[in-house]
Automatic annotation (TrEMBL):
It comes from Anaerococcus prevotii (strain ATCC 9321 / DSM 20548 / JCM 6508 / NCTC 11806 / PC1) (Peptostreptococcus prevotii). InterPro entries: HotDog_dom_sf, Thioestr_dom. Residues 60-143 form the Thioesterase domain. This is Thioesterase superfamily protein.
Amino acid sequence: MTKKKIAIQDTYGERFKHCWGCGSDNESGLHLKSYPSEDGKSCIAEIVPDDKYTGGVPQNLFGGMIAMLFDCHGTASAAYFKHRDKGLDLTEDTVIGRFITARLEINFKKPTPMAETVRIIAEPLEIGDRKVIVDMKMYAKEELRAVAKMVAVAVKDNM
């Protein structure tokens, strides 16, 4: 029996579905989707950026867009890693805990070409009570384009 793939962002609570980058309820948004790997040890997002996100160098993706992709994928991944660390499965009925970025470091390795699938892979480095540290790698055309490290923190109930 094949398990249905569930996007982490689709398990966000109603008040957290409005992000421009990954919110399902933002009509003009990008709607980035992050999925746990089969073994649950990583999370993967893929997107082919629209031409309007080109940078100052034609045919290359804008660096700010790269940061946004890491931001949205990283916080979704942190939420999933914490959820899994609690021994919980991701189901259609899940309302996952929400994480936000406390720190994001990016190293740009090579220009990221336009009109190509961009693949981001996230893995947990550390899972704490309220903090998850996530390591991410961005690929296009099977080549490493950028790496990032994120410190994500759980959203407090009164936020």
